[in-house]
Amino acid sequence: MERGENKMALIKPIRTTKKLDANGGEEEALLMSPTSRTFHEPNYNLYVLAILGWKVPINVDAMKAEIQSKLLKHPRFSSLQVIDESDDSRNMKWIPTTVNLDDHVIVPDLKPNPNNMDTDKLVEDYISNLSAVSIDMSKPLWDLHILNVKTSHAEATCIFRLHHSIGDGVSLVSLLLSCFRKSSDPTSLPTLLVSSSSSSKGKSNLSNNRGSIWSLMWQYLVKLWSCISLLFNTVVDVPMFVATALFLKDSQSPFTVPQGFKSSTRLRFVYRTVSLDDIKFIKNLTNSTVNDVILGITQAALSRYVHRKYEIEGKRKFSPQKMRCRASVVMNLRPLLGVQAVAEMIEKNTVVIQGNCFGIVIIPLSISQFDNPLDYVRKAKTTMDRKKHSLESRCTFYLSQLLTKLFGFKGAAALAPRALSHTTLFFSNVLGPLEEVSWSRHPLAFIAPTCYGQST
């Protein structure tokens, strides 16, 4: 492994205009998408990191066999990313290669200090060290680190690391979960919660009210108002996003990144487990969603910390209410196919969901004090409901494509990440399985996904 700033020089540009297909004929090499190519720019060199805790020690050979039979069937995990010298724009292409699992599955010999058996810190330090190095571009850009060390969270830990150019969160998690099976039934794939469409309900209501002309008129008026509101929210949100990317920064606070911080700096990853039942209880109580509750909890924690820190003997140094604090939130734009569909695609060697398809929205965070803690969740719900009724995420996705066409990859990588660096927090989440799952009869205790390498 080499440091991030040297990674583009690890392999020389090569001419890659042709490759052999399954029948031995020649076909054009696969071109990398503009978004994926942008992730290779020095100030936008993103990696996805998934920390997986297991309830039993890991059988390395069984884990390798599962990777060989499932994960490597995905073309992105068995292809090199190389620069095509025949392309003046220095685009990159996917070139199939033979994968040596020993180069990707790493089993370090971690020996805890007998005088200090803090294995949690040992594992945290190992994960932290990974953030300071990048994957060698002479091989597919992913690796799996197996730590057979017992911690307070699990009997063993895996760190699954891959470059963000391989895919976005939805495609990668769907692919990863296709390697898992239900612990209660080793032959069944995990189940993902897919939101049901309300279209059938709307059609039913429309047919039931056909006899009333006033009901129809009322429905059309509601739809018209919804369209006007959608247009208004979009017109307000998109310029605000552009302003944030150009110059509008959040207020300096204990949560903002210090000046001079570099993305290649060694990071510390902290993860905690919370009760999903407690979150669901609050969700049902406030008629909100899980995301609303998480955002409300975050606002409550930030607000109480700021007020406590900046209030000295009853005198405030400044007004927290005037503090500009916002979060960049990644919104998936890809339709959810489900784990079953992905697994069938891999088995049949058909096209698997891949690449990056997401937009970014800017969400204001309220640094206020409420007597009722549930008010934080209600305020978060109001904010999220408004953001959902906006085309900001789709507009930012197409805006990034436009920037790439106008200014090239370097220009897009210089402008697009500024929205992230000018906000205080960064949120992203993906759906997980509804039941306990196992990988090659290794029951999963937890999974903590994150990413690093974004510009600051």
From TrEMBL:
Domain of life: Eukaryota
Family: In the N-terminal section; belongs to the long-chain O-acyltransferase family.
Entry keyword Transferase: yes
UniProt keyword terms in alphabetical order: Acyltransferase, Endoplasmic reticulum, Transferase
Domain O-acyltransferase WSD1 C-terminal: 355-455
Protein name: O-acyltransferase WSD1-like isoform X2
Pfam families linked: WS_DGAT_C, WS_DGAT_cat
Region spans: Disordered: 184-207
Ranges where the O-acyltransferase WSD1-like N-terminal domain occurs: 60-294
Comp. bias intervals (Low complexity): 185-207
Subcellular location: Cell membrane; Endoplasmic reticulum membrane
Membrane topology recorded in Swiss-Prot or TrEMBL: Single-pass membrane protein
GO molecular function ontology, one term from the record: diacylglycerol O-acyltransferase activity
Coiled-coil parts of chain: none
Catalytic activity reported: an acyl-CoA + a 1,2-diacyl-sn-glycerol = a triacyl-sn-glycerol + CoA; a long chain fatty alcohol + a fatty acyl-CoA = a long-chain alcohol wax ester + CoA
An annotated GO cellular component: endoplasmic reticulum membrane
